[in-house]
Amino acid sequence: HIYLLDSDRLKLVAGEGDIGRLLVERELAIPLDNPHSLVARAARSRETVLINDVSQEPDFMFNDLLADTRSELAIPMIVAGDLVGVLNIEDDQIGRFTPDDAHIQTVLAAQVAIAINNARLFAENTRRLAIIENSNDCIALADMKMLTPLYINPAGLEQLGYKRAEDFLARPIQASYPPGALARLLYEALPTVQSAGLWRGENEVLRADGTLMPVEQTIFAIRDKNGQPRDLATILTDITARRQAELA
């Protein structure tokens, strides 16, 4: 059975056989602080729990659908130091599990944990991309070292007057700024991002036809797994109407 951490509980998401499927349908969940659950103990301690005679174990949690359980092996699933859930295996024989069984299932648990984590990251990134793609603001991404554009969302293409993303991505970032705004980007904004991680202020960018668009700009660093700045992300909000109102 596979339990996933869900806030302060462990929720059964996959079970073997008809009984396992029934338990999933019943939405079985074990509180993380349950003192009478081997699954919860493995999660709290982050260590494998191997019990070869559950009748002698006060922490064993009886389930009427699993009344034949005699041995239980609960293995925490951990990725990058974070608890993902618990892989739990039960058997109807006393003395069923050996240390070798525990080792093999620990390797399996690690693989399952990585697969689950990758699936979650994919889903999270998909949601984030949907938000970015549907934003009304211009959102773009560039390589921090080379200042080459890597991505721009549909709103950015429309606001800057590009018909295709390829047309924008083929130009260096410097080509999107008039001289004064470029100097502010290079000598004020980017050094601030390098030191503080974020810069926010007013600036100007060039549309595809060469006209100026005043913007409120936020620039922040995208870091790699080691915490080092890798890319630059920027959010541009067109403030043309506000500027015109101020001049009226």
Q: What's the CATH topology label of the largest domain?
A: Beta-Lactamase
> What's the CATH class label of the largest domain?
Alpha Beta
| Percentage beta strand | 25-35%
Poorly predicted regions: none
CATH superfamily of the largest domain: GAF domain
CATH architecture of the largest domain: 2-Layer Sandwich
Structural class: alpha+beta
Major sheet: order of its strands? Answer: 3-2-1-6-5-4
Percent in helix: 25-40%
Task: Identify the overall geometry.
Answer: elongated
Q: In total, how many beta strands?
A: 11
**Mean residue pLDDT:** 88
Which H/E pattern describes the elements?
A: EEHEHEEEHEEHHHEEEH
Distance between the termini: 68 Å
Radius of gyration: 27 Å
Largest sheet data: 6 strands, antiparallel
When the domains are counted, the total is: 2
Count of runs of 4 or more consecutive helical residues? 7
Folded structure, characterized:
- The protein is of the alpha+beta class and 248 residues long.
- The protein folds into two domains: 2-130, GAF domain (Beta-Lactamase, 2-Layer Sandwich); 135-247, PAS domain (Beta-Lactamase).
- The chain has seven helices and eleven strands.
- The protein has helices at residues 17-25, 38-45, 99-133, 154-160, 165-169, 179-196, 240-247, and strands spanning 2-6, 9-14, 29-31, 49-51, 71-79, 82-91, 138-143, 149-152, 198-206, 212-223, 229-238.
- The longest helix is centred in the middle third of the chain and has 35 residues, at 99-133.
- The protein is elongated and about 80 Å long.
- The model has no long low-confidence stretch (mean pLDDT 88).
